[in-house]
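Entry type: protein chain
Record version: 2
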Amino acid sequence: MARPTSTFRCTECGWSTVKWVGRCSECQQWGTVVDVAEATGIVRAVQAVQLGESRTARPIVDIETTDAAHRPTGIGEFDRVLGGGIVAGAAILLSGEPGVGKSTLLLEVAAKVAATGRRVLYVTAEESTAQVRLRAGRTGALHPELYLAAETDLATVLGQVDAVSPDLLIVDSVQTVASSLSDGLPGQPSQVREVASTLIRVAKERQLPLLLVGHVTKDGTIAGPRLLEHLVDVVCQFEGDRQNALRFVRALKNRFGPTDEVGCFEMTGDGIAEVADPSGLFRSSGRTAVSGTCVTVALEGRRALAVEVQALVVSTTAPQPRRIVNGVDPSRVAMIIAVLERRAAFKALGANDVYVSTVGGVRLAEPGADLAIAVAIASAVRDTAVPHELAAFGEISLAGEVRPVSAAKQRAAEARRLGYTMILDVEVGTVRAAVSRAMLSAAELLGSARERELDAAF
């Protein structure tokens, strides 16, 4: 008879080995190799289950469809990302860097839901109830239907659910809750998997909406096993810079709505506030036209945002001119400078320092901002201000052509709504024609202003 031996298998990728190792040799994950206690040479038979009529497979055309009913949370920007609100029994994972405001946002969500008469249980595993109470008092998130519990044991959390019978459960965070049925410390893959799967199973059985807070690793991915993202129904990412008050919530996965929506928030001293129209945050407030600026219309998900691009070109005696950028892709700026030199006859750029930045700290990662960057640099070189009424969007190719971008009609409509009557897009043809048109419009406006001054003098 064959001697039974232990087999160790990775819970992430399925790689197996005859002895335990701390790191999987296949997927390079730490702490995912566990003993599955398999005995070699033994085949276990699986008996077929007699299915009832209600569980027998049916043709797909005979299955009735029911739309998921969304219940708004009272925070419009968060509801936009979720597809209209929270669905009963849905498991939602909200991830983000430490200090970005995840707990503040969910505490606000809990207070808004409690204000509608629904009972909310907020389980904090990282702070005490007194700390959460102080934050709630500062942000105005106090309500009798909002219950707090500071627990780190999964069984105790389930006991709190039985005692309170909430309509919404919030757990902050899933990496700090541990189960006695699983070995390892809180936060390890086995513990996260056990805690998340148990909470999600309870949520599905009771039709209880579940909001989980998830930590992120150094590279920005969600900590724990990848299985966690597969178990939940919605994965939201909370983004923001600590040096900037603006915050964005994006849906990376959503079984009940779109995944291209973005919610915009602003951190204030009184908590977190919605920003329904964030375009004003990314444009300068000065009314006097200044050279080296141009407005573009970028897309954040399905939302069009007007963003001002600023450029500064100064002479230098250094052997290697500097290219300093903030909020835009450095490689695209270098390419646009090369295209301006070669295709638009801006020969002086190679010997000058070029600085490019966005207003408000927003980051433009799409190629639709190429044309605005080119116009801003050209305006800075010629020291000619672009008219306030001009907006530009389009991708620039190495041949100097302006290529179309996605959702051009939506961008143009947003620009006109904000008062931009002169739009540079793919219709200008080339970057040289676009720069010439922008400079000509500036000269025409300057001439009109001088004519008005002369008329007023006489």
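Comment: Residues 70-276 form a domain with the Rossmann fold fold (CATH 3.40.50.300).
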